[in-house]
Specification:
Oligomer: single chain
Largest sheet: 7 strands, mixed
Radius of gyration: 29 Å
Strand content: 15-25%
Helix content: 40-55%
Shape: flat
Order of helices and strands: EEHEEEEHEHHHHHHEHEEHEHEEHHHH
Number of strands: 13
Length: 460
């Protein structure tokens, strides 16, 4: 299924934007195709890990398609452990598309999404955790997410999981030996087995505990800033993003649509939505903006309900709060803005929020942004949340497999406690071994591979 020589454009193709475009080939005919299409003047040696200068030519007409560089990486010293060559062309659409077409005419086939990395996995160049880390690295939205992905690529996840799996295999071998050669071996030390299982379970649980943080690093959160008109929502966005992303005027209703900004808070990618002020209006355009504000609040992971400190909590604020609660319950922070105009605003006694979920700000003066970010992190993932030095951050697929392994190990311990025969011990122990192998790739089906690598870009 994964044979032959594949080709794909390995860089983003944007008209008049990219300076270099790369077309990548991998397979047993990669070098031959390159030799057919690429002319390297002079005495340049066609050796592995060399960069040649020359021209891409049509093999029949000899018409020059592009002036380019050719990078040669022969097996096994390549990304896929196959012969790999790359045409480094001029950027833009036409040069790379023409070179790609010539490669296809010479017998290469268009790579499927993630097929280069899939071949690297199948050829033993990477394990499955490293392959998934490459996808995480490409899609990282923050420096912390990129660092966690890099740690995965270096084997920080695979290494402890392999050790745990080896321990399970050793236990299984010892138990099965007692089943097959009971008379020739000393009795099994059940306490030692139980101690090992507890230790494996504890280490496994520590890895599982990184799932939520890993998901936050990869996917980030969506935050909606809502409130009535002229409470300073746009000033809040501008202060937070350190830019004039939103238009700010003293006139209510200035923001008519949802304005988005991409930020990073404590290593977590954050999509901030500055919404139109929510109020009753006869203006049709503003009414559409209000409806979109309500929709943004419904879809957000966290809502910043913003009020004006100079006016305190008003009936309109109470209405907005009730409207949003009726749409769908979401975590809230109450942002009391413009405290420079009123340092001691009146907060209703009926407000059932702990003090740490009320943030005082003067957005127009750039005051309170740090306090806001601290409150957001505490609300999203608890007071002690940190992404610093996070070496392991498992994804949902890995978490599901490790949860299955953890459940199976717990079942083994229950089986031992119930004093069932050794044969019963091995059933769940094999399940745990298989589940651990699904994470690193020792035991994985073709359908799982297809599902994982279909999310990759075509040139990776």
């Amino acid at each position: 299924m994964y044979q032959g020589t594949i080709v794909a454009i390995a860089t983003a193709v944007v008209p008049a934007q990219g300076s270099v475009g790369i077309v990548r080939l991998s397979g047993d005919q990669a070098l031959a195709i390159a030799q057919t299409l690429f002319h390297a003047p002079g005495q340049q040696p066609w050796e592995s890990h060399r960069l040649l200068y020359g021209y891409v030519r049509h093999p029949h007409t000899q018409q020059v398609v592009d002036e380019a560089l050719l990078l040669i990486m022969l097996a096994p010293r390549s990304y896929t452990r196959e012969d790999v060559v790359e045409f480094h062309c001029h950027g833009g659409i036409m040069p790379v598309q023409q070179v790609l077409q010539l490669c296809l005419e010479q017998g290469a086939k268009l790579a499927q999404p993630g097929e280069f990395t899939l071949r690297a996995f199948l050829n033993g160049r990477l394990d499955l955790t490293q392959a998934e880390s490459i996808q995480d690295l490409v899609g990282a939205k923050s420096p912390q997410a990129a660092q966690a992905a890099l740690m995965g690529l270096q084997g920080k996840l695979a290494h402890p999981l392999r050790q745990l799996r080896e321990q399970c295999l050793d236990l299984l071998a010892e138990i099965e030996a007692r089943i097959d050669f009971e008379e020739d071996l000393p009795p099994l030390d059940e306490r030692a087995v139980e101690a090992t299982l507890r230790q494996i379970t504890q280490e496994l649980q520590q890895i599982l505990n990184t799932a939520d943080r890993g998901e936050l690093l990869r996917q980030g959160i969506k935050i909606a800033i809502v409130g009535r008109p002229n409470v300073g929502k746009s000033s809040l966005l501008n202060a937070w993003s350190r830019s004039d992303r939103a238009i700010v005027t003293p006139l209510p209703g200035t923001t008519r649509d949802v304005v988005e900004s991409q930020l990073v808070v404590g290593g977590i990618p954050v999509q901030v939505l500055d919404t139109a002020g929510i109020r009753e209006t006869s203006d049709q355009v503003e009414q559409i903006g209000v409806e979109r504000s309500q929709q943004a609040a419904q879809n957000a992971d966290l809502v910043l309900l913003t009020i004006d400190a100079a006016q305190g909590w008003t009936g309109a604020d109470q209405e907005i709060y009730q409207q949003i609660q009726q749409i769908q319950t979401r975590p809230f922070l109450l942002v009391v803005n413009k405290i420079d105009l009123n340092p001691k605003p009146v907060i209703p006694q009926t407000w059932d929020f702990p003090p740490q979920q009320i943030v005082m700000m003067a957005a127009a003066k750039n005051q309170g942004v740090d306090t806001l970010e601290t409150a957001i992190l505490a609300t999203v993932q608890g007071e002690n949340f940190t992404t610093a030095n996070l070496e392991i951050a498992i994804n949902q697929r890995q978490a599901a497999a490790l949860t299955a392994a953890n459940t199976a190990l717990a079942q083994v311990q229950e089986t031992i406690a119930a004093q069932l025969p050794l044969d019963f011990w091995t059933i769940d122990l094999r399940t745990a071994i298989q589940s651990l192998g699904e994470v690193t790739g020792e035991e994985v089906t073709e359908s799982v591979l297809d599902r994982i690598f279909s999310r990759f870009c075509i040139g990776k």
